[in-house]
Amino acid sequence: MTEPAQIHISKLGKEFIGTNGKVTALRDVSLSVRRGEFCCLVGPSGCGKTTLLRIVAGLETHTSGELHLAHFDRSKPLHSMVFQEQSVFPWMTVERNVEYGLKMRGVPAAERRDVVLHYLDKVGLSAFRNAYPHQLSGGMKQRVSIARAFANDPEILLMDEPFAALDEQNKAILQEELLRIWEESKKTVLFITHSIDEALVLSDRALVMTARPGTLKADIPVTLARPRGAYDVRSSEGYGELSTRLWRELREEVLNSRSQAGAA
Ligand SMILES: Nc1ncnc2c1ncn2[C@@H]1O[C@H](COP(=O)(O)OP(=O)(O)OP(=O)(O)O)[C@@H](O)[C@H]1O
């Protein structure tokens, strides 16, 4: 059965008025993400990926076009966002950080505890539940952010380069942890990355954006078998071909974006 659309964006545009005049960040972006789908957004630096995610998150408004988000289960939050920088509360323990959204929603303490312990176990942080963020490494703090986002149980997860600041091995482990949790929960995910590898490890579809003003250039189905491992996926059938295709689409836009920067 085909799942219904959860995120539907039609001819969406965004203009910023800055000190140097008008900046068109997004133009005519149209895309649809089905419920339970994992989509990665890739595109050159400055093409509007974060702006698009922030618009979906309701943190920014669009200046033209339409955005429709389907909210299937009103007892759950619609979306949660995970940022590149660690966005944990430094004054709260790991456990308090993860339960924050649930507490805000008035979920009873016993239920909160079960959910929090479940996700701390999933991200390998059970032993650190009473630790404070300053006692954790960067990768561990990102794990707290991921556990918090899933514990909050939103329908849509919006992830803005959540692993960009991590070293290669920690990134691979977190990608696998994220995939395992996603496979269990099947949330709708919109995930920004600069990495072709990361898009191929994680996504069902890679959405390639053009240089600014960003619009959708290519929508590439990532048909690699699941479950996937962060390294073994690279030797799976079709990986090389997909990787080359994505790079061809992206390369042109990265060059365009460089010539824009040179002309500015
Ligand atoms: N608040 C703002 N005011 C003015 N211009 C902005 C604002 N936010 C973003 N922009 C501009 O909009 C464009 C898109 O920015 P955005 O951060 O969305 O790109 P991005 O694709 O996420 O970049 P990166 O990959 O480098 O993170 C850029 O030219 C940026 O300078």
UniProtKB/TrEMBL annotation:
PANTHER family: ALIPHATIC SULFONATES IMPORT ATP-BINDING PROTEIN SSUB, TAURINE IMPORT ATP-BINDING PROTEIN-RELATED. Belongs to the ABC transporter superfamily. This is Mannosyltransferase. Pfam families: ABC_tran. One of its GO terms (molecular function) is ATP binding. It comes from Noviherbaspirillum denitrificans. Keywords: ATP-binding, Cell membrane, Glycosyltransferase, Membrane, Nucleotide-binding, Transferase, Transport. The keyword Zinc does not apply. Residues 7-236 form the ABC transporter domain. The keyword Acyltransferase does not apply.
